[in-house]
Amino acid sequence: MAGHIIYVHRTIAATPEQVWEVITDVAAFDRIFRSVSDSRLISEGPFGVGTTWEEKRTLFGHHGSEELHVVECEAPLSLAVETRLKHDVVRTSYRLTRFGAENRTRLAMTTSVHMEERTPVEKLAWKFFGGFSFEHTHKMLEHDLEDVAEEVRRRVGVAA
User: Fold this and answer.
1) Is the separation of the CB atoms in 41 and 27 below 8 Å?
2) pTM of the predicted model, to two decimals?
3) Pfam families from the xrefs (predicted)?
4) Taking every pair of C-alpha atoms in the chain, what is the biggest distance, in angstroms?
5) Which residues touch 26 (CB under 8 Å, ≥6 apart)?
6) Higher pLDDT pick, 88 / 148
7) E strands, the chain, where?
């Protein structure tokens, strides 16, 4: 059973490389994103497929710690991260596209929840309460984009 798919995007006054540095700075996520209260890198080595970290945030109504794994990475253009929340798999994909003649980047995020392993009771609960989760998560993702733009502006010194 497929759950929600949420798509958000924003244009940021910076190069894809500058935006990439922010969205892959795991150690600073708790300072960058208002929805993250703690982040801790678990894996070692350069950022890429296999990078793993733990963070505390709210996502699809889940509050608490989750372990995230980079499952796709083509720096500085695309990235996919997955986490498991009980019976669900949440996947967030990032696409960075150079936009216009100036140093501008369109950052697009697509987040989906896959609920194939839910029990019948959990599926029924989703039918009643899933809309609330969708609205809350959509707003959080919009805030994430605002937070990325603000951090890029802070680091680069331009209006994001």
Assistant:
1) yes
2) 0.87
3) Polyketide_cyc2
4) 52
5) 39, 41, 47, 51, 53
6) 148
7) 2-12, 36-41, 52-59, 62-74, 78-85, 88-98, 105-114
